[in-house]
Amino acid sequence: MLGIRKVSIIGAGHVGESAAFIMAMKGIADEVVMTDIIENLPEGKALDMMQAGPILGYDTKIIGSSKGDVYKAIEGSDVVVMTAGFPRKPGMSRDDLLGKNIPIMKTVAENVKKYAPDCIFVIVANPLDAMIYAAKKVTGFPDNRLVGQAGALDSARFMAFLAMEKKVSVKDVWAMTLGSHGDDMVPLREYSSIYGVPVSKCVDKDALEKIVDRTRMGGGEIVKLLGTSAYWAPAAGVCWMVESILRDQKAVIPCHAFLHGEYGINDLPVGVPVKLGKDGVEEIIELDLSDEEKALLKKSADHVKEVCDRVEELGLLK
To answer: Is residue 184 within 8 Å of residue 306, measured between CB atoms?
Structure first.
């Protein structure tokens, strides 16, 4: 992308501030805007990060916006990241947040459409499957400019657990999950490897099953420990995606994207490997799945459809 690379983050909570900080540290964007409805919160966090720049060696301009028309500050953004919303609490599923966070998404999406109509819209807030569906309904953006951050996070959790199990560097591990961002996600054993060897061949079967289960429940485990949702790993997943978009890296990253026949799924946002570049989702990568994996992915997609249908039934976008 030519000119100043601008990213706006809606929501200056833990995920938003962590993402802004990582982007600054890595020099992903030239300008990062954080907005929030809590007065002075994003301004204070932005100023704090700017004062860390001379010590840590970054020049990224970080701006907070919480007063007046807070969304005007996102004008001209190349990428807008949606992190705003109520976090999960112990005992809550992601779907329990439906009635709380969809109305927030409606307001945000209307303003993204108004002030950053050409942006790539990256959705992080839960329940993710429903949030990206709502974003499409409200903005009318083409599917390539709507992408959800879930698979990047879930895959990173899978990789971390595999590295812990084998006591190896995370740099030697690659792993991938498909499907919904929840208990129906599909960790892919045959497409996950440690130093190039499929995990099914180098990790004990029982240990691997425990890792798969822990990956599926990874968010809930954090919620039980912290009393709220994770933030560093989700923020890192966001930055992985945003960097590939802004630098046109064409990285293949597991993300939520709208499918149109790929994997036998139509008009639903489902987690699959996608090529991310300057135009957003530039290609859906279709993997040769086993019959079991296909069945699990279909089950996951069916759950996504149920959640999206629920948004319509409850009239949350009216």
So the answer is: no
Q: What's the mean pLDDT in 149-167?
A: 96
What amino acid positions are annotated as catalytic residues? 181
Task: Give residue-wise pLDDT tens across range 193-216.
Answer: 999 999 999 999 999 999 999 999
3-class SS of residue 93: coil
Residue 1 is predicted with a pLDDT of 44
| Angle between helix 291-313 and helix 128-139 axes, rounded to 10 deg | 60
* Amino acid at residue number 58: Y
Residues forming beta bridges with residue 8, ordered by sequence position: 33, 80
Structure tokens that stand for 145 in this block: 């400019």
Among residues 11, 31, 12, 13, the alpha carbon closest in space to that of 23 is found at: 31
Q: Is 126 in the same domain as 158?
A: no
Structural contact between residues 245 and 279, judged by C-beta atoms closer than 8 angstroms: no
Residue with tokens 């997943």: 237
How many folded domains does the chain comprise? Answer: 2
Mark whether 197 and 306 lie in a shared domain: yes
Which residue range forms the structural domain that includes residue 161? 151-253+261-311
- Phi and psi at 229, nearest 5°, equal -75, 160
Beta bridge partners of 10: 35, 82
Backbone angles phi, psi at 181, to 5 degrees: -90, 85
Q: Which of 83, 112, 89, 103 is nearest to 12 (CA)?
A: 83
For 101-140, write each residue's pLDDT tens digit.
999 999 999 999 999 999 999 999 988 999 999 999 999 9
For 31, counting Cβ atoms within 10 Å of its Cβ (0-12 exposed, 13-18 middle, 19+ buried), the class is middle
SS3 270: strand
- pLDDT-based confidence at residue 94 (cuts at 50, 70, 90): low
Is the same domain home to 42 and 176?
no
Instruction: Give the pLDDT confidence of 258-294 residue by residue, as tens digits.
Output: 999 999 999 999 999 999 999 999 999 999 999 999 9
